[in-house]
């Protein structure tokens, strides 16, 4: 699975997972959108959830946008390709640890690889990050379940289970 990243460069370079992926030769970065190849674009604003059925659509190519969450508006994702949103997953990176849907670029790419049945590729992408294995451990069950789905509607049904569990969690001891 080829991984490509449109790099906006608006986040902290020391914490940028896309730049580290490029440094370890695990992804290709592009600084101009028109250079980004056609593939499955991981877009949190997409109307359809990523599913194993999308593996064929992207012709073996995953595309992510690397930008800060503050600037991740729908307009930022104008890339050519099949746009899909990742389902419910929890971040393992130090900045957003435990937050649902707040994944780094490498977490998003690794999650997509797992959903496409390429767990070894996911582990390879996460290898340069000390918290990389934690991402796979934290999300082991949902990634397995999403990978067993046949299409986007199945993924959404599984996601609804996790979102219902999130809503049902009791308040903490301090009342929050």
TrEMBL record:
S-adenosyl-L-methionine binds at residues 17, 65, 86, 105. One of its GO terms (biological process) is enzyme-directed rRNA pseudouridine synthesis. One of its GO terms (cellular component) is cytoplasm. It is found in: Cytoplasm. Keywords: Cytoplasm, Ribosome biogenesis, rRNA processing, S-adenosyl-L-methionine, Transferase. Its EC number is 2.5.1.157. Pfam families: Fer4_RLI (PF04068), Ribo_biogen_C (PF04034). Belongs to the TDD superfamily. TSR3 family. PANTHER family: 18S RRNA AMINOCARBOXYPROPYLTRANSFERASE, RIBOSOME BIOGENESIS PROTEIN TSR3 HOMOLOG. Aminocarboxypropyltransferase that catalyzes the aminocarboxypropyl transfer on pseudouridine corresponding to position 914 in M.jannaschii 16S rRNA. It constitutes the last step in biosynthesis of the hypermodified N1-methyl-N3-(3-amino-3-carboxypropyl) pseudouridine (m1acp3-Psi). This is 16S rRNA aminocarboxypropyltransferase. It comes from Natronolimnohabitans innermongolicus JCM 12255. The lineage of its organism: Archaea, Methanobacteriati, Methanobacteriota, Stenosarchaea group, Halobacteria.
